[in-house]
Write a structure and sequence with these properties.
Layout (H helix, E strand, L loop, with lengths): L6 H10 L11 H7 L6 E5 L5 H8 L3 E6 L2 H13 L6 E5 L11 E7 L9 H11 E12 L17 H8 L6 E14 L5 E13 L4
Parallel strand pairs: 1-2, 1-4, 2-3, 4-5
Antiparallel strand pairs: 5-7, 6-7
Length: about 210
């Protein structure tokens, strides 16, 4: 990361330099709260190389993943085609600071939508709130702390649960809290190093319209 890089250049370089293949494993938080739900339309913000969207598509969802990196989008679309999920899993390039996918979704997920580059995350999360259809679910997982080897930059921020909840600006008359909690897990680095880190989990359901 350099001071002159744009966020898009940073993430393009990040994905172009990756040598480790995708794990093929969806986020545990997503599986915990979405498994068994009646499939509908899903939106995954910061979809990376597609593991979460591919899992949703395999569960019967019509799932859209968006990412700033065209490299990540192209790779994820290729994986969807190889898996025979091209009709249910779709990936598109979006700069969420400028534009946002149109329409309403029965599930909106933001799994670790954080960046070492300047990023108006609170504003994007509020757009995510607005994209949840009545009766739909909002699932957010975020880094509450970082492993020592993680990329750090001047804009790295690890919010508290209270901070993120306040950023969402949820109307208590329209939303039900499913879970707001922290979870500890062991992170493993590329060199085999390990560290205990904290994740924040926030899950809300938008109440159906009368």
């Amino acid at each position: 990361m350099t001071e002159t890089q744009t966020p898009q250049e940073f993430w393009e370089q990040r994905y172009q330099s990756m040598t480790r293949p995708p794990s093929g494993k969806p986020s545990g938080t997503l599986v915990h709260y979405a498994e068994g739900l009646v499939p509908g339309r899903a939106l995954d913000l910061g979809s990376s190389r597609g593991d979460d969207v591919l899992w949703l598509a395999g569960q019967g969802w019509l799932a859209l993943g968006v990412d700033l990196s065209q490299t990540a989008v192209d790779l994820a679309n290729g994986r969807a085609a190889e898996a025979g999920l091209g009709e249910r899993a779709r990936f598109e390039q979006y700069d969420l600071t400028v534009d946002f996918p149109p329409g309403a979704f029965d599930l909106v997920s933001a799994m670790f939508l954080q960046s070492p580059m300047e990023f108006p995350r609170a504003e994007v999360l509020r757009k995510a709130v607005g994209a949840v259809a009545p009766g739909g679910l909002l699932i957010i997982a975020e880094h509450g702390s970082a492993a020592p080897w993680s990329d750090q930059g001047p804009h790295v921020h690890h919010p508290t649960l209270a901070q993120t909840r306040a950023d969402l600006q949820l109307d208590a008359e329209q939303w039900d809290e499913i879970s707001v909690r922290t979870a500890e897990r062991q992170a493993t680095g590329q060199m085999g190093q390990v560290a205990q880190v904290i994740d924040n989990i926030l899950v809300f359901r938008r109440r159906p319209t009368a």
